[in-house]
Amino acid sequence: MKFLDEVTRVAQEAECLFTKAQVSNAITLMAKDITEKLGNSHPVVLCVLNGGISVTGELVMQLAFPLELDSVKAGRYQGKTSGTEMNWQMTPSTPLKSRTVLIVDDILDEGITLAAIAHYCKEQGAEFVYTAVLVDKIIGRAKPCHADFIGLTTPDRYLFGYGLDYKGHLRNWPGIFACTNLY
């Protein structure tokens, strides 16, 4: 099967868990909680690339307080459906020393990547580190970190859409979808 045929098949067979409207509503609720907690802290918001682009873009437009926006690129999957070794491709250019940092990512799956990024921020001298994820996946075992702000919770299925990807594709699907088959 050609790869684009595979991606098309995955998208066609998928189950929609949350519509675009439901995802947007969850982001709005997260924005309210974040505003209450961080509205007076002038935070650095770190978008975890590439998955966090969609949620970060929509989220920051609803945060009506001064903030700085930067990004970090680290992950384990590298275009696959699984991975083990952490790969750091980009660190923030904004100094984090003595700052409040909000890390925004698409999903809290096993928690390894988010924990590593939070640890990095603390090593850089961040005073407070908070995490926000669009999706917290219930995996049935302990994770090395938790998210302070969670949009949606899902069962342990392979997901795509709204920033989440299937082998680097389908991040642009308008909602959160669960794969019925992995190829």
Report what the structure shows.
- The protein is of the alpha/beta class.
- The chain has helices at 3-13, 20-38, 52-60, 112-123; strands spanning 15-19, 44-49, 68-75, 87-90, 100-108, 128-137, 149-154, 159-160, 175-178.
- Strand 5 (100-108), helix 4 and strand 6 form a beta-alpha-beta unit.
- Helices cover 28% and strands 30% of the residues.
- The protein has a single domain (22-154), classed as Rossmann fold.
Low-confidence stretches: none
Q: Span between N and C termini? A: 9 Å
Roughly what is the average pLDDT, rounded to an integer?
94
Biggest β-sheet description: 6 strands, mixed
| CATH A-level architecture | 3-Layer(aba) Sandwich
Structural class: alpha/beta
- So how many helices? 4
What is the CATH T-level topology?
A: Rossmann fold
From the spread of the alpha carbons, the general shape counts as globular
Spatial strand arrangement across the major sheet: 4-3-2-5-6-7
**What is the radius of gyration?**
16 Å
Estimate percent helicity.
25-40%
